[in-house]
Every structure is written in structure tokens, then in C-alpha cells.
Design a protein that fits this description.
Blueprint lengths: L1 H49 L2 H9 L4 H8 L3 H7 L6 E3 L3 H8 L2 H10 L5 E5 H17 L8 E4 L30 E4 L9 E5 L29 H14 L6 E7 L4 H12 L6 E8 L1 H14 L6 E8 L10 E2 L4 E2 L21 E6 L5 H9 L6 E3 L9 H10 L5 E3 L3 H9 L7 E3 L9 H11 L6 E4 L7 H10 L5 E4 L7 E2 H5 L10 E7 L7 H7 L8 H15 L6 E7 L75 E4 L8 H4 L2 H10 L5 E5 L10 H9 L4 E3 L6
Helix pairs in contact: 6-7, 7-8, 8-9, 9-10, 11-12, 12-13, 13-14, 14-15
Length: about 725
Amino acid sequence: MDLTSTATSTSGRAMQRKRTRTDNTEMQAYTSIAEMTETTRMTEMPSTQFFAMAELVEILAKSLDASSLINVAMTNRFLFEILEHLLWPELDLCDPNEIQRRLHSPKGREALYRSIGTVRHLKLHVSALHYLVDSMARYSDENHNRPTTIESNFDPTSPKGKTKTLATLPWRGPDWLPELPLVNPLTVALPPITDLCSLDFEMFDSQGQNIFPAATAYTHQEDFSETYYRSLEIRGELELTWLLSHNTALTRVQLNNYAFSSIDVSLHFVRAIARLTSLQDLDLNLRLCEMSLHSILRILYCNLPASLETLRLRCRYYTGRKSDMVIWQSDEGLFAPGDETGPIVHRRGGPLKYLKSIRIVFDHKTNEWLLGEFVRSCPALEAISPPLWPGENCHLLTEAVVDRCPRLRELDNCGHGSADILKALPDDSLDVLSNHSFAAGDKVNPILEMVAMQHCRSIRKIRLVQCQHIDGKTVRSILMNCRSLEHFSVQDKDRSSIRLKDLVEGEWNAVRLKVLDITVELRQQRYTAAYLRKQGQAMPAVTEGTWERLKKFYRRLGALKDIEVLNLRIKSKELQWLDESGQVRPAPPSNSSGKEIDDDWNSDSEPRTENHNSADATFPGFLSLGDKRAGRRGYLKLLAGLTNLRELRGHVQATTSETRWTVGRREMVWMVKNWPSLEVIELFPADGEMGKCRQHLDWFEQEHKNICVKQATPLV
């Protein structure tokens, strides 16, 4: 009895504990579910508030390209109202289609007037600027909604007298104008463009003429003085000055073919430039007579904003109308004729401590003292492009660069001035040597030789475009001595080519190359019939020595482990080296003497300007793995070390007389396997003629769509 009661009580307590544990588990489950629900409810509220439909559409639309964004915005009115401000960050009025869409319809002008304040990057020429101002003024006049801020222009060329104005408010000069009595003030209602960050302006449109209809002038054109429309250039200068003066947040300004018509225009333009306190990049391409250049440079150098980082100044002279712009330097400052009481423009308070790059290209010699003094105010200068002056006229500029520019690392323009500066620089202090315009004179080879000797440990980049002929010995010296060289490019294939035998002589120490862009001159060694009969040999077109040079050249290319871009071009009179079966193509002798013919020119130092069509030429054996049974040579395996190769360009087509028979699927598979970083290989010509391509080339294009296999531009 006692045992039974004890067992019953024990079982009851166990059942009670089990029910208690079950109740606790259910309570914990309910509690955790409630907490999760509350947490979800708390996290959903801000998400719902943040991801409103309009904001969500705007966030997603920022990832679209321009055409897709326009298509989405034109779907319905709701999306257009949300995305309208995203359609105007960049406005290109150099494109006639853009002008037709934006300005040639009432709705387009309405949208432009409503959103012109959101434009950040503006590109236009003088005709587009006229049309923009006229369209905005016409729209405001038609809707009786003039801007609250009345801007002003002036006409320094019109005679004294009363000039009618469009606006009813009295004329008030802006703050940036000097305290001078301006002739015939003119008030015009202009669009509120005040938040630009970038401005590209061309004094002439791309077609060289006005592309707009005759109705470009304002509706009340008769209200303007006739002298104001006497020159479109004058009006363009005035409107451009107004545009610069009201966009002080500009960081980049590029002006092409700009000419100053009067002294007043130049002073107001320079004063507007001086007020751009955030300007970092200034590119001026001027058209001036020689008398005006010194005056413009003087006031420009003294008034550049202190925030400037890059200055590109180009000038070409023209023999047009006479200019009365004469400004001279006195003890008290810069003065203009008729106003000797004080300086007409203010001087910058300090040096240009942020200016790092100066590129100056002039047609003729200008004031060297002025340029030297300007360089002395640029202590942070890292790159300079001196004008192409004779060497004896550059000593002041050279002294300024050496004394006041200790950070100089880049030299542009391989010309007379560059030679003097390079000679005066400390050893191993130059990093980049390049030219962005034609390098005149005979100083190119001496400059490269000085670089190879004095800056062989520091030079990293040599990029030459449109230069004079470069000797093969000079190129060989660069490749043998410059150990830190990473970029070597000589892109003018019509003038500068490097002979194959100069490339393979000596040992290359430039093993860190990442970009190699050169033109190789292939010359076949040919022998006369009489000479070959004495040797008891048949007449070859490509001798064994030439094959050995090619093999040595390919082996050196394969040793460039860091190479990323390889652009190899051919210059040769003998275009087709191999026949359709991959065998040497015989060539007839060029004369009857027993003399070896190795050169087509007398000396390597002579400029070679012949332009031979090498469109059907490839480097012999470059793209082939070879076939010993067929006696076909192939050196593609020598390039197996180019694991970082991204671009292979130049005469490497697989559709020439040689390669369309010697390059097969085996070579294609080998390239993909051994060059894993490959993005571009120019196997197909740019003209798109692929009908003669074999099946393996089509297979390569289909299987590897991420690799571009077509030339960007035709090779000549």
C-alpha cells in the first residue's frame, strides 16, 4: 500500500513538472513571437517612410544610363515629375539633335527654363549660347514672367548715345564690374544659370557656320541697337563673361578659339576668371594678334585664382582686324590707357600653391621674362610644357624651374626649351617625358639620350606622339638603361619606326614595362643570284638570321611579366612573308651585283617618311605554335609568360595571307589558357570583312564574347 501510494505521488509530481515545463515553453514561444512582431513592426515603419514611391524611383533611376533614364521619364507624368531634375545635369548644345529637342519647341523651352538651374555641366558654342539666351528671354516675355534678378551686358563698341532697353527696371551694374562709366548699358532678362561646375565653350560651331534658323534673335530685335549685332563674336564674348561671372562655383573651364575684341572685354573677362574661387582646371585656346598676346598674358597671369591646379594655354596668331589692346607694366601696377589713377585689375594675394601642371603652346616666341616670373609663383609645379623656343632664349625659364619648382617630375614637348630644362634638372628626378603636340626641331634624340643617361633610375613613362624620327640606337639605349620604365610609346608610325636588329642588340633592363607601343621595321635580307650561286644555295626570301632575330625579339617580349598592353605595328615593303601553306615566299633579287642588300636607306639617322600599306602583314610566326612535320615555324609558346596581358593590338590579325592558314583552334585555345587576363585581341580587321575567316575564328568569337576580337581603327 505504501509502495503504491509512493509511486502514485511520484508520478503525479512528474506530470505536474512536465505540464509546468510545457507551459513555460509555450510562454517563451509566445513572448519571442511577440518580440519578433514588435521588432518587425518597429523596423517596418522607418522603411516604409524612407522607401516612398517617389524616392525609390529616384534612387533606382540614378543607376540608369542617359537613354534609359529618358525612356523611363517619358512613360507617364508621375515619373516625369520625379525624374525631371535628373535629366539636366549635363546639357550638350553642340549637338544639333539636342538643340532640336530642347529649344525648337515651346514645351522644350518651358522645360529648359524650368530646369536650367539644375544644369551642372554645360557644353555649347557661340551660336548655341545666342540661341539659349534668346529662347529663355522669349519664353519669359511670352509668359510675362521675367526673372527677379535683372542681369546686364554692355556694348563697348557702340557710339555714345541713348540705347533702348528691354527691361523696365533701371540698369544696375553688378559687383564684379569696375567703377568705370560704361557706354550704352543694356539690360536683358537672362536665364538663371548660377550653379555650373563645368563649362566648355567654342567660339565657332562645329559646322563653321550658324546652324540655327533666322529667328534666333530676340522677338523685339528692333529694340536693340544695330551696333550690338554688328559682330556675333562681340555678343558671344559679352554673354560668356556674364556666364562666368555668375557661376563662381565652376571647377573646370575650357574655351576654344576665343578672341578678345577690345580692352574692356579682356578686362571684364579676366576679372570674371579671377572670381572663380573654386576653379581647378583652365584650358584657354586663344586667337590673338602678336601685339595683344603680351598684354593678355600679363593680366591673366596676375589674376588667376589661387585654387587653380591645371593650366593649358594655347595661342595661334591671326592677321585680322587691328587691336588697340595695349597694357604696360609700371611701378604702381597694371594700367589701361586713359585710366592712370589706379590698377585696373587686382593682383593675386599670394602664389599659386596648388598649380601642378602648366602646358603652353604658342606659334611664336612670347615674353620669356613674363613666363619665367609666372613660373616662380608656382612652387608646387609638377609638370610643365615649355614653348618651342630656340634654346638660347630659355635660360630665364630654366632658372625659374630649377630654383622655384623642386617637385617637377614631368616634362612635355620634346623641343628646344625642354632640352635646356632637362639638362639643368638634378639627376634621377624626372618621372614622365611626353609630348601632346608636334615635337619640332632636332632635339628629340638628344633629349632621349639625356634621359637614358641622367634619369635612367627614375623615368617611368615615355610617350611620344607626332615626333621627329627617332634613331634605333636611341631606342635601344632607352630599353637597356631605364630600369624603372613602365610605359614606352612611340605612336607616329609614319615617321618613327625601330629596326628589328636594333631591338635585339644588347640586353633589355626595362623589364617592368606595362605598356609597349612601337612600330617595328622588318627588313628582309635578300641576296643576288650571283652571290647565291657562289654559295651553292637557293634564293631565300627570309634568311636564317632574320628568323633568329625574330625569335630573340619574341623571347624578350615573353620576358616582360608585367606587360598589360602590347601594341606592335609593322613597317615593311615586303608585306607577305609567308605563303598560304606557311612556307617562305621567294622574292626576286633587286639587282644583279653580288652584294648583300640589307638596308633600303643609307643611314639609320635619316628620317623615313615613306608610308607603306601594311594592312595585310603580320609578325612572322608570332601567332603560330608551328608544325615541325610541315616545316612551319611558330613562336607563340615564347609568350607564355604574359599572364597579365590585357590588350594585344597592332598587326596581329588572323585573317592575313599567312595567319589564316597558320593560326587554328589550337592557337586560340592556347591564348585563352595562357593569357587569363585578356580583354582585347585584334584578330579581325576593323572593316568587318570576315567572310574568309575559318570556322575556328567564329568559334572563338562565340565562345569568348567577353574578349573583343576586332580592331578599333583600321591599320595602314
